[in-house]
Amino acid sequence: MYKSPTNSKFSLTFFKSKLGLTLAFIMLLLSGQISIAQENIPPQYDAFRKNTFHGGLGFGGLIVTATLNYERMVTQHLDKKVSATFVKVGFGTYGSIDGSGQYLIPQYGFLTGSKANHLEVSVGPNFTLNGDLNLPVSANVGYRRQKPGKPFLIRTGVALPEAIYFGMGLSF
């Protein structure tokens, strides 16, 4: 009959000792942490979600604005300086000492950056629906915080006719 060269009493007593139990517990914890860390590694470049609704409030001296926008991503190249281009249509209202009114702003723009922080630039015509807002163009230069692939975004910047604005939105 064949006898194993290892002593089975030694292996049982090793795991019954405090050192053996401690090492076994640490190995069990480390194996769980390694597998969790490997599951949570995101892809190098997630894409932006294609559609976004965002709103904002703007303040500029004696004028206050509120704008709602629908935005659609046109192109995405997260490995380049201009990471995405988009078109958007916004409907807004303004109020000042002189009066109030509504405007419609279709714009074309781009985002820079491949992670969460982006420069946002857009430009387009300004259509005053009623009121006396005599701006022929609408333009925007701002900061956007949005992780590619995530739904939530925050925007702030300077725009015509929105003035100095702060906004939030959701992508889907």
Structural summary, described in words:
- This protein is of the alpha+beta class and 172 residues long.
- It folds into 2 domains: 8-39; 51-171, Porin.
- The protein is built from 2 helices and 9 strands; from the N terminus they run H-H-E-E-E-E-E-E-E-E-E.
- It has helices at residues 8-16, 18-39; strands at 51-60, 63-76, 82-96, 100-112, 117-125, 127-130, 137-145, 152-160, 163-171.
- Strand 4 and strand 5 (117-125) form a beta hairpin.
- Keywords: Membrane, Transmembrane, Transmembrane helix.
- This is Outer membrane protein with beta-barrel domain.
Please tag this protein with its features.
172 residues, alpha+beta, Porin, 2 domains, 8-stranded antiparallel beta barrel, 9 strands
Provide a compact summary of the structure:
The protein has 172 residues and is of the alpha+beta class.
State the shape: elongated
Radius of gyration: 28 Å
Query: Mind describing the biggest β-sheet?
Result: 8 strands, antiparallel, barrel
CATH architecture of the largest domain: Beta Barrel
Provide the residue-averaged pLDDT. Answer: 82
Spatial sequence of strands, sheet with the most strands: 1-2-3-4-5-7-8-9
Oligomer: single chain
The chain-level structural class is: alpha+beta
- Which bin fits the share of residues in helices? 10-25%
Number of strands: 9
Counting DSSP H or I runs of 4 or more residues, the number of helices is 2
Provide the succession of SSEs: HHEEEEEEEEE
Protein name: Outer membrane protein with beta-barrel domain
Keywords: Membrane, Transmembrane, Transmembrane helix
